[in-house]
């Protein structure tokens, strides 16, 4: 879409426009198609890392879809102060994957969902309430480093899945040729479609690649359909399926991760409103963050992982020029309906790990690349900022690759500081805050024009945000 002088694009449908029903449904299905793979991959990866069985894995996938749909509908239409009235599709974030696996292994899934229940509402609710005070502490340098480390530390997870995952390791087939071949097929098709095609083929490149990989796995007899036969077509969600435990280290860990997640949502909301040539208002920021936190806490009651905004769908809004929140509302309805069917979750669990591995490798790399773009677009990489980047990435990747280096710490401290996202984000936050520099909120930050400055009005921004 061409840009206008004020940074807006030529919109096919504006925020409150309602396209004809047939077109609205197709546009809504496109949003679902783009986000359903990474959203369910989060549930799939965590369930596999913790060692859950097919039934529990299918149930968690089902709940992720259900609460992604509910949160998307509320984001589009609002309930009281909850929701931004913006076309933002919601889903489970990779930000929480590492902590969910490590805490799930060490303390059990009850501790994971107990921590989400407490921290989702408290942390993001507080951030939304005091957003204008908090935002200057998270300029592009800090949020970009967080996004980079999320992508980088997920790459080994993608490689393990590409080799066949835990099931292949137990069978002594880790790295077998058919696993590597499936992962390479998925990765190759996704990259080829993304690089050499346009329009809907490019947008749906990851989904198309997974479908081809799945069909190939079926053809070679690598898919077990027994979980689908055992699954019901429709089922009512089960509250407290895994129970709740409130472990202090789990609560502190997820509290910090929700802080990180809030900054991702802020960036995505800015990306959506950039299509109109403006930044979000404080009311929009507040409603969007309330939606993140409250729906994440509510979802934890039913065993859903934290819900946040999806950047892929922000890209679709800007690419197609369809900003209608009613289209996204339809996406939410579709997701919620899918989430009420255990059979959908069961189908996802039949996809071989190697097929997901090829997709996760691509998605993790793209996450890291988008973080790099966020940093270099908005940050001058002079000596101060280079040191912050070096320390943050060094510590984040250090604990990711050599977690035994922290074995001498007390158990609670080891669990908290062994999270790569926490180490990188905490390092970047502290250094950027207390070392004088352009993006520091305490020292040399410009009073106006800063990328970290809070938005106080509906006035159009000078140009679109790159978050």
Automatic annotation (TrEMBL):
Chain segments annotated as transmembrane: 25-47, 59-79, 111-129, 136-156, 176-196, 203-222, 242-260, 327-348, 354-376, 388-410, 416-435
Pfam families: Xan_ur_permease
GO annotation, cellular component aspect: plasma membrane
Organism: Natronolimnohabitans innermongolicus JCM 12255
Main localization (coarse): membrane
Keywords: Cell membrane, Membrane, Transmembrane, Transmembrane helix, Transport
Family membership: Belongs to the nucleobase:cation symporter-2 (NCS2) (TC 2.A.40) family.
Places the protein is found: Cell membrane
Listed name of the protein: Uracil-xanthine permease
Lineage: Archaea, Methanobacteriati, Methanobacteriota, Stenosarchaea group, Halobacteria
One MF term in the entry's GO annotations: xanthine transmembrane transporter activity
Disordered as annotated region, ranges: 441-467
Membrane topology: Multi-pass membrane protein
